[in-house]
C-alpha cells in the first residue's frame, strides 16, 4: 500500500549546523509531496510542497526536491536555528482516487544554542 | 482571518463513554478532514466531509462517526471509548478538491483525548 518512511529521531544539532531529514515514499501513481512542521503545543503547518517530479519546494531556508527515480523527498537546511526545534512530518497526497494524506511517523529535531 | 479552531483542547473520559469533538474550518474553506495522531506517530486519516457528506473514510471502526453542518463546521463522535482511542485528534480544512490535488491542508491545534 501507499506509505511514507522517515528517518527516526530525535535529531540533535548545534545551531548553524546542516540538517537533512530523509523521507522516502511508496505510492501508486504520481503523488504530491509535503513537509509539515509541528511546534510544541501547536497543530501541523505546511512547510513546503512539490507536486511533480524534479520540483523543488522551499520555505524559510528549508528545501526538498521531489526525486521520482529514488522515490525520495529529503528535507534540508543549510544552517539551523534554535527556533527550528520541532517535529517534522513528510506526507503524500495521491492525485486521484483518494482524498487522504498519508503521513510519516515524524522526526523530532532539537537544535542546541 | 481565523484559522482552524477546535474544541475542547483537552478532555478526559473513561472507557465506554462517548465523546464529541468540534471543528470550525478556516474562513472560505468547505472541506473538513479528521486525523488521529497517537503519541509519537504521524496523523492517521479518519474521514473527510464535504457538502455535509462523508467523502472518504480511513481504516477506523464505525464507533467513529462525523457530521458536517451547513456552515462547514464539523463534529467527530467516538462511541464506546477504548484506552487505545487516547490521542490527539486533528481537524484540517481545505478548499474543494485542493485537498485531493496537492493543495494545502490547514490544521487546528487539536483536541487531546485521554481515555482512562
What's the shape of chain B? globular
List the total number of helices of chain B.
Answer: 0
Number of strands of chain A: 12
Strand content of chain A: over 45%
- Which two chains form the greatest contact, residue counts included? A-B, 25 and 26 residues
- Mean residue pLDDT of chain A: 93
Query: In angstroms, what is the radius of gyration of chain A?
Result: 14 Å
Helix segment count of chain A?
0
Estimated helix fraction of chain B: under 10%
Cα Rg of chain B = 13 Å
How far apart the termini of chain B lie comes to 37 Å
Helix percent of chain A reads: under 10%
| Measured distance between first and last alpha carbons of chain A | 41 Å
> Largest sheet of chain B, if any?
7 strands, mixed
Low-confidence stretches of chain B: none
Q: Write down the oligomeric state.
A: heterodimer
Beta-strand residue fraction of chain B: over 45%
Which structural class should the secondary elements of chain B be placed in?
mainly beta
Tell me the overall shape of chain A.
globular
Please tell me the overall pLDDT of chain B: 92
Characteristics:
heterodimer; A: 113 residues; mainly beta; 6-stranded mixed beta sheet; 4-stranded antiparallel beta sheet; B: 116 residues; 7-stranded mixed beta sheet; 11 strands; globular
What does this structure look like?
The complex is a heterodimer of chains A (113) and B (116). Chain A is mainly beta and 113 residues long. Chain A has no helices and twelve strands. Chain A has strands at residues 3-6, 11-14, 19-21, 23-26, 32-38, 44-50, 56-59, 62-65, 75-77, 86-93, 101-103, 107-112. In chain A, the strands form three sheets. In chain A, strands 2, 5, 6, 10, 11 and 12 form a six-stranded mixed beta sheet that branches. A four-stranded antiparallel beta sheet of chain A has the order 3-9-8-7, with no helix packed on it. In chain A, a hairpin with a 7-residue loop joins strand 10 (86-93) and strand 11 (101-103). Chain A starts with a strand and ends with a strand. The mean pLDDT of chain B is 92. Chain B has no helices and eleven strands. In chain B, the strands form two sheets. In chain B, strands 2, 4, 5, 6, 9, 10 and 11 form a seven-stranded mixed beta sheet that branches. In chain B, strands 1-3-8-7 form a four-stranded antiparallel beta sheet, with no helix packed on it. The radius of gyration of chain B is 13 Å and the shape is globular. Chain B is 0% helix and 49% strand. With 116 residues, chain B is mainly β. In chain B, 40% of the residues are buried.
Amino acid at each position: 500500500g501507499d506509505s511514507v518512511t522517515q528517518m527516526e529521531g530525535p535529531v540533535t544539532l548545534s545551531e548553524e549546523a546542516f540538517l537533512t531529514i530523509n523521507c522516502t515514499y511508496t505510492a501508486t501513481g504520481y503523488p504530491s509531496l509535503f513537509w509539515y512542521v509541528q511546534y510544541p503545543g501547536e497543530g501541523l503547518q505546511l512547510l513546503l510542497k512539490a507536486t511533480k517530479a524534479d520540483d523543488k519546494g522551499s520555505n524559510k531556508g528549508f528545501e526538498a526536491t521531489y526525486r521520482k527515480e529514488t522515490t525520495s523527498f529529503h528535507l534540508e537546511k543549510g544552517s539551523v536555528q534554535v527556533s527550528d526545534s520541532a517535529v517534522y512530518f513528510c506526507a503524500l497526497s495521491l492525485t486521484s482516487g483518494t482524498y487522504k494524506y498519508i503521513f510519516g511517523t515524524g522526526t523530532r529535531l532539537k537544535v542546541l544554542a | 482571518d481565523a484559522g482552524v479552531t477546535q474544541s475542547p483542547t483537552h478532555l478526559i473520559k473513561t472507557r465506554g463513554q462517548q465523546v464529541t469533538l468540534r471543528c470550525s474550518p478556516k474562513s472560505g474553506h468547505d472541506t473538513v478532514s479528521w486525523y488521529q495522531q497517537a503519541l509519537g506517530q504521524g496523523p492517521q486519516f479518519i474521514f473527510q466531509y464535504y457538502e455535509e457528506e462523508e467523502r472518504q473514510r480511513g481504516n477506523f471502526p464505525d464507533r467513529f462517526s462525523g457530521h458536517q453542518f451547513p456552515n462547514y463546521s464539523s463534529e467527530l463522535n467516538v462511541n464506546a471509548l477504548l484506552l487505545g482511542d487516547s490521542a490527539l485528534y486533528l481537524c484540517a480544512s481545505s478548499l474543494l478538491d485542493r485537498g485531493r490535488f496537492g493543495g494545502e491542508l490547514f490544521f487546528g491545534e487539536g483536541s487531546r483525548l485521554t481515555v482512562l
